[in-house]
Amino acid sequence: MNRREFLQCAAILMSGATASQLGFTLNEEQTVYLASAPNYNTNPVDYFSDGQRKIVAAMSEVIIPRTDTPGAIDAGVPAYIELMVANWLNEGERVIFNAGLTDIEDRIPVQYGKPFNQLSAQEQLEIMEALEEAESDSPWYEFGNVLREFISDAPFICQFKELTVWGFFTSQEGASQVLRYDPMPMYFDGDTALAPQDSSWSTFL
User: Fold this and answer.
1) Digit-coded pLDDT (tens) for 186-196
2) DSSP alpha helices (H): ranges in 37-90?
3) 160 and 59 in contact (C-beta within 8 Å)?
4) Given its phi and psi angles, is residue 198 left (phi above 0), alpha (psi -120 to 50 degrees) or beta?
5) 3-state secondary structure of 181
6) How far is residue 174 from each of residues 64, 141, 156, 188, 203, measured CA to CA in Å?
7) How far apart are CA 80 and CA 41, in angstroms?
8) Is the pTM of this model over 0.85?
9) Deepest in the core among 38, 82, 110, 135, taking most CB within 10 A?
10) Mean pLDDT estimate for the chain
11) Calpha distance 69→88 (Å, rounded)
12) What's the half-sphere exposure (Cβ side, CA atoms, 13 Å) at 52?
């Protein structure tokens, strides 16, 4: 099983959805894995400290805030990120993630007098934009670099964004309340025009 296939399995275990609802088909290895895997919703991972969980929740909400639709916290993204860091990242990737999270945990209170999760929304956004600017030469930002395998040496902010987006749009909230559902069976139109305010499509109702 490659790493993207494992990520798909993790999305199913976290959301309680099925592969068909999320829009992909499982191979035999994934099916066997899911049949024997623990239920991640009833067996939560205990990897982050309480302070780190608050930072992760706040950072994920900066990326996908609650508006008239659910935000990252509503969709359970912080728990998904903790699960992925603990069980899915390899050791090198985990070192990068842990170092980035520790930097936010240690540096921000010194600079701002408060932990990240207690800062204003504008301050949080400015900090995360500065992280992106500092890493803007990473291959992760290359134009058209989509639907890729997870880049092992991607900077912390890139890891965090990718996990946040994956966790959100494979959640029930993200797939059913933010993406749009097309109930017409056995039909696909790859040239459907979208207005600026339109969201993309989901197969998950």
Assistant:
1) 455 556 666 66
2) 50-63, 77-87
3) yes
4) beta
5) strand
6) 10, 24, 23, 21, 12
7) 10
8) no
9) 82
10) 78
11) 28
12) 15
